[in-house]
Automatic annotation (TrEMBL):
<protein>
    <submittedName>
        <fullName>SDF2L protein</fullName>
    </submittedName>
</protein>
<feature type="domain" description="MIR">
    <location>
        <begin position="145"/>
        <end position="199"/>
    </location>
</feature>
<dbReference type="InterPro" id="IPR016093">
    <property type="entry name" value="MIR_motif"/>
</dbReference>
<feature type="domain" description="MIR">
    <location>
        <begin position="89"/>
        <end position="144"/>
    </location>
</feature>
<feature type="domain" description="MIR">
    <location>
        <begin position="27"/>
        <end position="81"/>
    </location>
</feature>
<feature type="signal peptide">
    <location>
        <begin position="1"/>
        <end position="22"/>
    </location>
</feature>
<keyword id="KW-0677">Repeat</keyword>
<keyword id="KW-0732">Signal</keyword>
<dbReference type="Pfam" id="PF02815">
    <property type="entry name" value="MIR"/>
</dbReference>
<dbReference type="GO" id="GO:0032991">
    <property type="term" value="C:protein-containing complex"/>
</dbReference>
<dbReference type="GO" id="GO:0005576">
    <property type="term" value="C:extracellular region"/>
</dbReference>
<dbReference type="InterPro" id="IPR036300">
    <property type="entry name" value="MIR_dom_sf"/>
</dbReference>
<dbReference type="GO" id="GO:0005783">
    <property type="term" value="C:endoplasmic reticulum"/>
</dbReference>
Length: 214
């Protein structure tokens, strides 16, 4: 009896650890509702937009890559394919469909069948109003594990046209001198890897019922 009694606290500890593991939710993952900057790991520039429209192609708001790490126009909010499909604080899964909404202008990362102005790849723009655009705002997060981990380099594949969000190094002149062209490419390669950088990351919740819908 004495020996069995001494084992009881140990058994309870093992049981509690097992229960806690079962409730863990990828604490280092990028989560829905987070606001972040995205770094292209090949060219060391951050995904950026601003109230400057393309002078050709769609004429929509331009999307570029910039070297500066402290520009407020490089923040993007992680949202679901539709409102309510990506609950606030939920880790983003590899293979999940998301929208990236530019924080300062409320437009979504978008691509369509227009040629990009410098490389003649596919134009990437920012489109919509107050976070509402259309079906060409949807991207699939491609990564190797279960969740989009903050330390991982990931790809974004466009659902509607199947191109990858990319940078190959072409630079604009006036009025956005030195900024890099962002475009869509049909092949997966080293030009389309992105990593989460500076931002406000919503912590995962142990209780899904407490999440706010986007």
């Amino acid at each position: 009896m004495r020996g069995g009694g001494s084992l009881l606290p140990l058994l309870l500890l093992v049981l509690l650890r097992g229960l806690c593991r079962g409730r863990e939710v990828a604490p280092a993952a990028v989560t829905c509702g987070s606001v972040l900057k995205l770094l292209n790991t090949r060219h060391n520039v951050r995904l950026h937009s601003h109230e400057v429209k393309y002078g050709s192609g769609s004429g929509q708001q331009s999307v570029t890559g910039i070297e500066a790490s402290d520009d407020a126009n490089s923040y993007w909010r992680i949202r679901g394919k539709t409102d309510g499909s990506c609950q606030r604080g939920t880790p983003v899964k590899c293979g999940q469909a998301i929208r990236l909404t530019h924080v300062n202008t409320g437009k979504n990362l978008h691509t369509h069948h227009f040629p990009s102005p410098l490389s003649n790849n596919q134009e990437v723009s920012a489109f919509g109003d107050d976070g509402e655009g259309d079906d060409l705002d949807i991207w699939i997060v491609q990564c190797s594990g279960t969740y989009w981990e903050r330390e991982d380099a990931v790809r974004f594949k466009h659902v509607g046209t199947e191109v990858f969000l990319s940078i190959t190094g072409e630079q604009y002149s006036h009025p956005i001198r030195g900024q890099r062209e962002v475009h869509g490419m049909p092949t997966a390669n080293h030009h389309n890897y992105w990593k989460a950088m500076e931002g406000v990351f919503i912590k995962p919740s142990m209780d899904p019922a407490k999440h706010d819908e986007l």
